[in-house]
Amino acid sequence: MRNRFDTQLSLLNTEIIEMGALCEETISDAVKALIENDKELAKKTIEAEKQIDQKEKDIEALCLKLLLQQQPVARDLRLISAALKMITDMERIGDQASDIADIVLIADLSLPRDFKDIKLMAEATIKMVTESVEAFVQRDLVLAKEVIAYDDVVDNLFDVIKNEVIDIIAHMPKQSKEEQNKMGIDVIDILMIAKYFERIGDHATNIAEWVEFSITGTHIDNEE
Predict the structure, then answer these.
(1) Residues whose CB is less than 8 angstroms from the CB of residue 7 and which lie 6 or more positions away in sequence, other chains included
(2) Cα dist. 161→30, 112, 173, 206 in Å?
(3) Quick one: which of 146, 51, 35 has its CA closest to 98?
(4) What's the DSSP call for residue 114?
(5) pLDDT in tens, 60-116
(6) Distance between CA 94 and CA 68 in Å, rounded?
(7) CA–CA gap between residue 189 and residue 192 (Å, rounded)
(8) In degrees to the nearest 10, what's the CA dihedral of 73, 70, 133, 208?
(9) CA–CA distance from 188 to each of 166, 185, 197 (Å)?
């Protein structure tokens, strides 16, 4: 009986790794679509969200099966409970990547060179998502804590971008009303994209905190 349970736990790990990989790919595609103003890739990113949603349902079903058909000990119960919480955050990461792609489709903008920090935010959030999932699979408490601490990097980048946008708006040159409106929309879109990356970082932090719970039995809520 335990052998079958361990096999299903191994399957749970595999499914979570696959869901994490989907999230990473979706974020990467959203960023590339933004940088290159690639409408087709933006559409692909939005479609990929459906795969993430389906993966969440599959993992949820597997977790419930483990809880109902087996008799998990306390450590296993924490692991399964953490997985159920984690996939909710992973699904929301997919939502936010899709939201970025939506802006690419609607706003018709390409990433200005001055906003290199958006690319840094993207890289930082992908790193957080990757390492939070790895921490779960490897039961690595040290890595989970590193992910939680790394959220400060993403938050600081958001503050930098926010200040850049405020400065651009404050020093907007004299142009026609139409040009000013277009430029204003562009920088606000950039700010919204940065906010979505900040939220992705928050969700990766949540995942890492649930990893910590699965190992130690202690969980501290992260306020977004």
Answers:
(1) none
(2) 18, 12, 19, 23
(3) 51
(4) G
(5) 999 998 888 777 788 888 989 999 999 999 999 999 999 999 998 887 665 555 568
(6) 28
(7) 5
(8) -40
(9) 9, 5, 14
| Residue type present at position 128 | M
For residues 30 and 15, give the distance between their C-alpha atoms in angstroms, rounded to a whole number.
23
Half-sphere exposure of 208 (CA within 13 A, CB side): 25
| pTM, full prediction | 0.87
Residues in the chain, overall count: 224
One-letter amino acid for residue 168 of the chain? I
**Total Cβ atoms within 10 A of residue 54:** 12
Fill in the DSSP letter of residue 139.
T
Q: How far, in Å, are 64, 96, 162, 190 from residue 43 at the CA level? A: 33, 14, 27, 19
